[in-house]
Amino acid sequence: MVKKNRIRQSIMLPALGVMMAGAFTLAAGASATAAEVGATGRPSDCNVEKKSFGAIAMCKKHNGGHYRALVVCKDPESGKMMDFAGAWRKSGVSYAYCQGSYLKPVHEGHETKVS
Rounded CA gap, 108 and 83, in Å? Predict the structure, then answer.
């Protein structure tokens, strides 16, 4: 009986050690990954300009987020208002175009998101 317990202990303890080492390795790997990603925020220090074709937006600090230009365009004949958005950007300029040469830009703006 004593011999069986010693055999069980000699098998179980190393197996338990291997499982614990694996668990610590996985936990350490996950912590490193989370630290590498870091916190993200919304872009800041943004400027928007109305242009003859629509609007442009640019942000000096992306802070890990994205931004895009927005424009509201008006059909001068019908008075109908339409919204258009530029591509999401992390750097550079986002362009929002009034879709049609007859449309005139009325309001410009920008939108930000955490990503």
Answer: 10
Neighbours of 82 (CB within 10 A): 14
CB 66 within 8 A of CB 85: no
Q: Amino acid identity of 49?
A: E
| Nearest Cα to Cα of residue 94 among 45, 48, 40 | 48
Query: 30-60 pLDDT, tens per residue?
Result: 444 443 445 679 999 999 999 999 999 999 9
> Pairing between strand 66-74 and 81-85?
antiparallel
Strands (E), 16-53: 44-50
The C-alpha atoms of residue 75 and residue 83 are separated, in whole angstroms, by: 12
Dist. CA 112–CA 41, nearest whole Å: 10
- Rounded to an integer, what distance in angstroms lies between the CA atom of residue 101 and that of residue 76? 11
Give the model's pLDDT for residue 83.
98
Contact 110, 67 (CB under 8 A): yes
